[in-house]
Amino acid sequence: xxxxxxxxxxxxxxxxxxxxxxxxxxxxxxxxxxxxxxxxxxxxxxxxxxxxxxxxxxxxxxxxxxxxxxxxxxxxxxxxxxxxxxxxxxxxxxxxxxxxxxxxxxxxxxxxxxxxxxxxxxxxxxxxxxxxxxxxxxxxxxxxxxxxxxxxxxxxxxxxxxxxxxxxxxxxxxxxxxxxxxxxxxxxxxxxxxxxxxxxxxxxxxxxxxxxxxxxxxxxxxxxxxxxxxxxxxxxxxxxxxxxxxxxxxxxxxxxxxxxxxxxxxxxxxxxxxxxxxxxxxxxxxxxxxxxxxxxxxxxxxxxxxxxxxxxxxxxxxxxxxxxxxxxxxxxxxxxxxxxxxxxxxxxxxxxxxxxxxxx
Length: 360
Ligand code: SAH
Ligand code: SF4
Description:
By secondary structure, the protein is of the alpha/beta class. The protein has helices spanning 10-19, 25-36, 49-58, 118-122, 130-142, 164-176, 193-199, 217-223, 232-246, 264-274, 301-313, 334-338, and strands at 64-71, 76-82, 88-96, 99-103, 107-109, 124-127, 149-154, 185-189, 207-211, 250-256, 281-287, 317-320. The chain is elongated and about 70 Å long.
């Protein structure tokens, strides 16, 4: 298999160019265009048309667009891509005044099986490669030339820490070559404890987001099957370790599910568990993207606001996030399901997945 455009290392690029008899400075020139300027290949005018044509073939893109849509007056864009083998990959771009955030997938599907999540319900397809992860950012940037993508959140399809090596290779490439600071790279995990521990040993202090969704093990066991393997106390201990090692802030994600995890007593219980993290941690409350395949509805806005207030009274910072692009299923997993991909009719009805939002 040939190397792909955003999967190739600079050494591989240099070797390819040398094979074609190009002068040594070419590799750096192409690299600077693709990464430094974040330009699509056909805009590298300093490279010359024949070589660009050769590169287009010799260094192909890994993802083919299958479907694109936009919402929020064009401020939210979503892509459904097909990998070379047809695997479904979703990417969302969210533009805000002064910044743009890309939400990338790290796997086609996900094996974690969270009950409220579209991706979890559709099951696991395969891991993405570092090149496929990085390419999502590059291609989103190409379609958003007016603004520099300054944040990347690993909150699309898949569990990043279950595809650790590829995720980390992508983090390094985005940091070193695209120049995105570690603070603006956010890895979201459902609580893969060994991965969280390993993250604490890495050289780049990326921002960590931990998806909690419940204040106690009994409820979390139901919503997040992985909790049976890594219960809350262990997940929180690993989060604390990461905090100590990285010196970064931490965020906790909490999908607000009506009548399931949004009661005042649950806010109190959550505040008790998280108080020790303050002020270095923060809870993001995300109204559930409700789905036909998951019975419960989203919490009503007033209930979400009350939950947030209760957390604050309990000494824990909380923010209510708004779902971006609901009308285009700008939530990973959902677009794929709507297009009948990677799903089979024996499974329950399609579900949404709630990603959205700006980086931390
Ligand atoms: N697997 C990782 C990252 C991808 S999911 C994780 O679970 O953290 C990104 C975020 O979207 C997680 O916080 C996840 O719980 C949330 N999410 C998934 N389905 C959702 C839904 N239907 N409504 C709201 N949030 C959802
Ligand atoms: Fe996987 Fe995250 Fe969805 Fe859970 S919420 S199934 S970990 S993508």
